[in-house]
Every structure is written in structure tokens, then in C-alpha cells.
Amino acid sequence: MADELPFERKQSRRRFVMTAAGAGASLWLAGCGGSSSEDATGGGDETTAGDGGKTYTGPKVDLAFWNGFTGGDGPFMRDMVTKFNTENENIKVKMIVQQWADYYQKVPTAVASGRGPDVGVMHVDTLATNAARNVIVPLDDVATSLQLQQDDFAETIWNAGIYKDQRFGIPLDMHPLGFYYNTAHLEKAGLSEAPMTREAHDEALEKLKGAGYDKAFWQSSTWPAHLMFMSLLWQFGGDLYNEDASQAAWDSDAGVEALTWQRSLVEDGYSPPNVASDADYIAFKNEKNSFHWDGIWQTQDLAKTSVPWAVAPLPQIGTQKAAWAGSHNLVIMRQKNPDENKLQASKVFLNWISEHSIDWAKAGQVPARNSVRESAEFQGLKNQSILAEQIDVVRFPPAVPGIGDAQAEMEQAVNRAVLGKQSPKESLAQAASKANKLLEENKKKYGA
Amino acid sequence: MGSGGPSTIERVGGGRPLPPLIGSPRIRARGTSSAGSGWIAYLFLAPYLTLFTVFVVVPAIYGVWVSFHSWDLLLPNKPWVGLDNYRNLFDTNSAVGDDFWNAMKATAIFTVFSVPLLVVLPLGVALILNQKFRGRNFFRAVYFAPYVLGVAVIGVLWTLLLDPNIGVVNYYLEKVGASDNIAWTTSLPWAWVALVGVTVWWTLGYNAVIYLAGLQDISRELYEAAKVDGASRWGRFRHVTLPGLRPVLVFIITITILASANMFGQAYLITGGAPGNETRTAIMLIAQEGLQNFRLGSAAAMSFVLALFLMLVSLVTFFVFRERKV
Lengths: 448, 326
Prior knowledge:
The complex is a heterodimer of chains A (448) and B (326).
Chain A: H1 13-42, E1 61-67, H2 74-87, E2 91-97, H3 100-112, E3 119-123, H4 127-132, H5 140-145, H6 155-160, E4 162-163, E5 166-167, E6 170-171, E7 173-182, H7 183-188, H8 198-210, H9 225-235, H10 253-267, H11 279-285, E8 291-295, H12 298-303, E9 309-312, E10 323-326, E11 328-332, H13 340-355, H14 357-361, E12 366-367, H15 370-373, H16 376-379, H17 382-388, E13 394-395, H18 403-418, H19 424-446
Parallel strand pairs in A: 1-2, 1-3, 10-13
Antiparallel strand pairs in A: 3-11, 4-5, 6-11, 7-8, 7-9, 7-10, 7-12
Chain B: H1 5-12, H2 25-33, H3 38-67, H4 84-89, H5 97-129, H6 136-144, H7 151-161, H8 168-175, H9 190-216, H10 220-228, H11 233-261, H12 265-271, H13 282-292, H14 296-320
Helix pairs in contact in B: 1-11, 3-14, 5-9, 5-11, 5-13, 6-9, 7-12, 9-11, 9-12, 11-14, 13-14
């Protein structure tokens, strides 16, 4: 289990508990260690290399690198950092991990007080908020000097890092929603492959029911129900917001259709009612259900189990293909007292990680770079490359500061409707009118 | 027996290790008798007073200032909005109005159901644990044990135990022939039953320990005197135990109300506020508004309205249980 958006914390409760103490301790240590690096760079009179991140020839520097890789992905990133440190003797990167929800609260405060990290990772849908709040700095010069080209990146991913005509994130990966299924169940039901259309999907659920798996597709009322909803909304031709993201648009017919389909899984008896946080995934790991939609990061966790599973791109339930995805972006934090050497070293680090994203793909991610994604080495990663097929149909929430506030309302609407507390139409409309007020307030606040 | 009154018992019960002695004659007498050496008192109070000023008084005043602004720590301009943050709370058409009162309602529901249980049940437990029987210390430890666990631990524990579909609780309910599809964490009123139940299980031991200390402070002689006067078991409880526990009782009621009104972790972890936002408590909303949506001005305003309510409730409690002079 690995990853989630900051405003969607439910999946991560257990991780939070396990890592909170550790993260607190490492933060404390980082605070203590900070001064030594200042000493190291203070006396440096060597010239600063300013080539935007290709090489670093200045004095030895320490970089603090914060992220939220608390799951199975953490060790992969840590290994990459270790490798970077051995290859670059002038730069020592120290990686500090904390749970994402904590991270997104702590980083801004740390940056504001001048004790923030040098580099970090942020999800694509938080870039605008953090850019508007002066937490991160524009990276256009890095992109230019590293000769990062749009054609080396998938278009959606590349464009998502831009806020107000400036680039704030170097895309590292994409992590889409995938369709996990229990191969033994399918076999028993006489199905040779995962259903990819609505008709086939309906038929498969019936066949599974016939084979004794009457609750084949548990519909969660929390995470990842809203990720499913977004995917389905886009599949039915709708969108989350209007053109300039000043109004919520999920209460459209497409939205109602999408949510109605989710609720129908419960009403038609394919899902038990009241599926609470994580229960759907735990059930899948215990072979209680046959289908489960979840992020690509679960591939690493499932690989450790004895469950006979496979993963496919999301089936097309609506009128077109679409899937929700997240994307990790490498960012550089704003510093109260900017240090040219550190900045330069940070860029070198960013570039190195981006170039080595094949190692990162092994953690259960799809690399953002086309060149890496098309490499033979990546094609060898079976599950990742299956889910990478969705790259042209993945969508993100818009790059608007404070969009998470509005997204939280949508999440609640999905919760109410899946639990049957409110009809999909009413629930979505209620959330939309609430979100509109928040969007208006945010517009005023961030001056967007 | 009634003639003795509570003040006699208070005077008898010396050396009580608890703080809830506000208004007791003992304290008042001491306060007036040693007027000359005031500076020594202040000297001893100084360290705490410093901490209190730095961490409570100053932030509280700063909070009032924040609540008059549209405040985001990281944005360069924090425009003055006057009373808008407060006005929005009372305007159901604003972005926060509905949510705030919904959260206040959730807090009130939780408080109303958890406080009586947390006042009465621990008293019963304390009375039993105050008897002489084999293994008494073991049981004292058992009842207190859950309290040493952090909220994160009990939260995760009960989330799994109470899961509607894969939880152990429903599994055993089915085994004994009861309904196995109670949605403990996703439907009403079951979510409240779960949250109140978990909280009572978790914190009962703390209140029981305080009662126990209070019970042990009541002089044996009073019970003996009551027995000689022919008081029944109930009579002794009614006229000796209860009056003897009055200051402890006021203390427990007050801190339990405050703790319940500040409930956050249980709902955050076990129900996540679900269904919808029905179990999102005031503190949960304030944290979300201030730390997740970065609207500190609005969050500060909410905090002050909540604080005002808590002060009123505490005052009412204090007056209801105040010492009546005979």
C-alpha cells in the first residue's frame, strides 16, 4: 500500500499510526542536523556552477528531501537516494519520510519558518495550492536547462505541472486506478479474461454470482470510491468543474449516471451495504470478492500475498475510456535564505531522480517520461506496463489553488450516495452548491 | 445523619490529593490567613504562570486577532474582514454555516450520551473496587488498562473490530444469533453507539481511579456512625458517600464534559465523520478548516464560539453542584 492524496487520508490511517512516531523523531533529528550543513557551505568560496542542474561542482552540501513514501514504495526511493549519494560525493541527500497528510501540513509551516526541506515530492493536484501559497518555486529554468521536452512526457502529465504559465513540478510518475481481479474466481465462473465493457461487466458479475461469488464487487463508501466516481464521471463524458474551475460540474447527468452505477452495485446485491474504509481491499486480500478498483501502488502489496490476482485497465462503463490518476512531481521548496549552492545541488538531484525513474517504476509506478516508459526494461514490469496503457486516458483534477477543499465535498457526496443516505442526484447537487461557495472564496483568497 | 452536611465531611477528609477543591472552606481559610508572605506564593506560581501566559493567554489573544482576518499563514496579505468569520457561522448560506452547526450538533449528541455514562459507570466500578476482595488490585489494573492506550491505537483497533462486513463484533453477533449486519461505523444511530461505547470503554478507568481516591478519603467513622444510627446500605451511600464525593463529582463532571466536547480522534479514525459528515465533531471541523483548508481566521472564529459554549456549560455545572450553605 502506498500512496494517496493529502485530502484523502482514510486509506492511510493504519500507516499514519505506524509512522507518526517515527516521522516525528526523524523530523526532530533533521532539525538538529540542519546547522552542520550551514557550516559546511558557509565557508565555501568556490564558484557556483549555474547550469540549471546538469552538474554540481560547488562545496559539499547537505540536502533535506522530504516525501510521504511511507508504504512499500519508501525503500525504493531510499535506495535511489543512497545510489545518488554514492555517485555524487559533493551532495548528501537525507530523505525524511512522513505520512502524506502530515507532510502537506508540515511542509508549508516549515517553509514559512525558514526550516523547510530543500527538495520534496508533491501530488499533481496540490501543486497549484502550494505554488499560490509560496511553498514551492517555479522550475522553468530547470526544465529548460535539463532539456526536458514536452515530447518526452505524456501531455496530460506535462501540462498538469503548470500554474499561471509557470512550471512548478517535474513529473516523476503517474499512478492510475486499476481493475484488480481474482483470477481463480474468474476461472471458476468460466471467464477467460477481465470484462472490458459494460455489457461484459454485467455478464461477468452474473456469472460470478452463479459460481458462488454473489458479492463479487464490494463498493466502498470511502476511499477509493471517489476515485472510482471521478473515473466514471469522465467515462460518461462529464467533468468535475467548468472551464475555469469556478463552478463544480459533477452534478451533471454524467455524474448522476456514474454515481448511480456505483450505488447500483449495492442495490443489485453485488456489494454488501455499508462497506467501510479498507474493508473492500482487505476482503480482496482474503479472496472474499472478485473485483476491486484501486491504485497501481497496490500491486506491490498484493505481490506479497498468495491471492491469485491480476490487474487490467479500468473497464469502460461509460461512453468513453477514462481513468483517474495521480502523479508525483519533484519540487524545490522556497527558502527564506536562498543558498545558490543548495539550489544548484537540488536541481542536480531532481534531474538524477527523473532520469532514473525506471528504478522508481519498480515501486509500482508508471514513469512520466516516454523514453523510460517505452524502454524494454519497463515493458518487463508486467503490471505496471498493463496499467501504463491508460496513459492517454488518465485525467487529473484541475490545477487550481485550494481545489482540495471542493474535492472533499465531492468525496462526501459519494459517501452519502453509496451508503444510500441520499439519492445520487441530490447528493451531488448538494455537494456542488457547497463547493461553489468554497471555490468562490478561494478565488478571492488566492486572487486566481 | 443529614445534619452533618457536606462541609463537615470536607473538613474531616484531609489530605485529598485532588484539585477540585474550588470553593471549599479549607482553601478559603488558608488564602486569607497568610497575607503577609504573598510574594513567596507568587514565586512558586511564576513558572506555571509563565507557561500559562506564553502557551495559553498570548495564543488566545492572538487567536482573537486572527479571527478578524482572512488568515493564511503563507499568503502575504491577510485582509481584515471584521466580524465576517463570525457572521458566516450564523449564515446558513455561507460555506461554513451548515457545517459548523452540524458539527456542534454532533459534538452535543456525543457529549449528552457519553457524559452520564462516564459519570455513573465509573462510580459503580469504583464502589466495587473499593470493597475488600481477592484480586482487587488486578481488577483495578484491568479497568484502568485501556486508558493507557493512545487514541490512535484504540481507533485502529475498533475500526477493525467494528467493521460492518469484516469485523469481529458482527461475526460473533451472528454466531449468537443476533443481527450480523449492523453498520457500526457507517450508519446512524449505530455510529454514535460505537463512538460512545468505545469512549466509555477507553476512559472509564480514569474516572474510576479518581472516584476511588475520593472514596478512600471518606472517613470510616462516618459510615460507622451511620450504621449505629440504623442507616441502610442505600442510606449510607446517599448520605455519606455521595456528599463525601461532591467535590470529586463536580471535578469529574466538568472534565468529562470538556473531554467529550473536545472529542476528535475517535471519530476521525473510526467513522471518518461518516455517514456524510454526521459524526464530524466541532474539533474535527476546526482542524480541517484551519490546517487542511488553511482558513485559520474562520477556524479561530469557530474555536471561540465553541469555547463560549463550553464556558457556559461549565458555569451551569458549577452552579448546579455548588455547595449550598445550611
